[in-house]
Design a protein that fits this description.
11 helices; 3-stranded mixed sheet; disordered N terminus; 7-stranded parallel sheet; 12 strands; alpha/beta
Length: 329
């Protein structure tokens, strides 16, 4: 299904200082189809190891038009929009969430539609656009109406609707992918309400304490970083006509796991010593946000478009240990 790329690509990745942006940039370098890759974030991103001179790293505040304009050129062939204020932070600071998740994103869309209508825009959204499912365990599809239970979900949905309309009108070529919770994220905790899901693996495996702010009975929809990156690249390559006339929104594949299952997986890798480093400390605001996210999806559309299924939780943890050099305790 993957389209043949006949010409070298000129790529822009926003939010490129994050670990998904870094992993995506490294994958694009290995792929060797791009003639230039620009990485931008509010602090200057680093270029992936063994990258080539095609990488350019730029510090930019995307809420400022004068800092957007030099990045959004007619030479671009593909833009991956990964920037954003995450769920917990967007809930805590409404104005900042609106400024970054809506205003800056619209500014990018509007600039691109004026200077480069042919550019392919891969916009990373979230399953947080949905509210609670009609019934427990109900598998949601793209046909189910979103009803966000958080400001983050609402802000992402607004940007989805705008890009979908611009694509309908032929002003941009949008590809909207709703990401599951990505597990395991390396580095420090983020402002995402789901940050604990990575923290209960990452910190204990490094011999550090981690807080579990939600019930062990909670289920979450997750996906490994490797699969997410593969699917972002696949979204870039799907021929426009395959999305059909209705919508360019796709719920990416993932798997449903409970917190109980996650803790059992931690014990199997790090032993009781690692498990003892997880402290249960319920946090009402975090729990309310995460409980509003459905945990089961019917990803038939994604599979029809050729997106890759995720593996098991055990395989995801194995990949994390391999990719980030964590030594099992």
């Amino acid at each position: 299904m993957r389209a043949q790329i006949k010409h070298k690509m000129n790529v822009l990745i926003t939010g490129a200082g994050g670990f998904i942006g870094q992993a995506l940039a490294a994958a694009l370098v290995r792929e060797d189809r791009a003639s230039s890759i620009t990485l931008t974030d509010v602090t200057e991103p680093t270029a992936p190891e063994s990258s080539k001179p095609i990488i350019r790293c730029v510090k930019a505040d995307l809420t400022l038009q004068e800092e957007c304009d030099p990045l959004l050129t007619k030479e671009l062939s593909h833009v991956f929009l990964l920037h954003g204020i995450m769920s917990g932070a967007a809930e805590a600071d409404l104005e900042l969430g609106i400024k970054v998740n809506i205003d800056a994103t619209r500014q990018i869309f509007d600039t691109l539609r004026r200077v480069n209508r042919d550019v392919k825009v891969v916009f990373t959204s979230t399953t947080a656009v949905y509210g609670p499912p009609p019934s427990p365990g109900f598998p949601l599809t793209e046909a189910n109406a979103p009803s966000p239970g958080s400001s983050y979900g609402a802000q992402k949905l607004i940007s989805e609707v705008l890009l979908n309309d611009y694509s309908r009108r032929g002003l941009l070529d949008g590809r909207i992918v709703r990401l599951p919770t990505v597990l395991v994220r390396p580095g420090k905790p983020t402002g995402a309400a789901s940050s604990f899901a990575s923290g209960i693996f990452r910190e204990p495996l490094n011999g550090e304490k981690s807080i579990l702010p939600v019930s062990k009975d909670l289920s979450v929809w997750i996906c490994s970083p490797r699969t997410v990156v593969k699917n972002l690249i696949h979204a870039r390559d799907i021929p426009t006509e395959l999305y059909g006339s209705g919508s360019c929104v796709v719920n990416l594949p993932g798997i449903t796991v409970t917190i109980h299952e996650m803790l059992a997986a931690l014990k199997s890798i790090g032993g009781q010593e690692a498990l003892n480093l997880v402290e249960e400390k319920r946090d009402g605001p975090t729990e309310k946000i995460v409980e509003s996210w459905p945990a089961k999806y019917d990803t038939t559309k994604a599979k029809q478009l050729g997106f890759e299924d995720d593996g098991t939780l055990e395989n995801t943890l194995k990949e994390y240990l391999e990719d980030y050099g964590i030594t099992k305790k």
